[in-house]
Succinyl-CoA--3-ketoacid-CoA transferase
Amino acid sequence: MRKVYPDARAALAGLLRDGMTIMSGGFGLCGIPALLIEAIRESGVKDLTVVSNNAGIDGAGLGLLLETRQIRKMVSSYVGENAEFARQYLAGELEIEFNPQGTLAERIRAGGAGIPAFFTRTGVGTAVAEGKETREFDGETYVMERGLFADLAIVHAYMGDTEGNLRYRKTARNFNPIMATAAKVTVAQVEHLVRPGEMDPDCIHTPGVFVKRIIQCPPGYEKRIEQRTVRKREPAAAAGEEI
């Protein structure tokens, strides 16, 4: 099967429709499939339910889809860096399903593993548990959470081969691996595209069986930084002073 496509628009052709559910990898702006998000924006598809740890920031990542009002509902954990997200939510223009971060990750992992639901203590006695089934195990109360499975998952990887095997790098190995397993179709953008056999099998994080389409990021692809943090510079030692 030919999995490599020339660009994001081509890779998403025939997959997008109004009202669909999309999983979008990344944490903040780290490991987000920015090219694929931009192509979704250009398509004009609307009324989307988007599953993502967060909604990017104003003017970047999923924030682009919020600006164009293409997202109807977000299933998220942390959304504190996006002013437009907050504005739409407080105005009643955006539906939100908040999840504790670990619960969100497990809901996605469960969906990819074919597990329809699981029980957790996280959220018991809070608004998170409202309207959900609870059950006692070993004297403790647990709340039932449903697994998540999407129509489409878009992910970003450091390296991939033409068969769809993916490797993520450092912090970008966040929600991307589990989302790649939890959708009918997974489309990946990779920084480095290699031939089959050029990736160390021990370093493959997502097997190619989960990935249906793949694109390579162009030269000079910009990876945005959400918040740049650096250490304070230490004062220079005086001549003859021990360091």
Remarks:
- The domain at 8-216 is CATH 3.40.1080.10 (Glutaconate Coenzyme A-transferase).
- The chain has a mean pLDDT of 94.
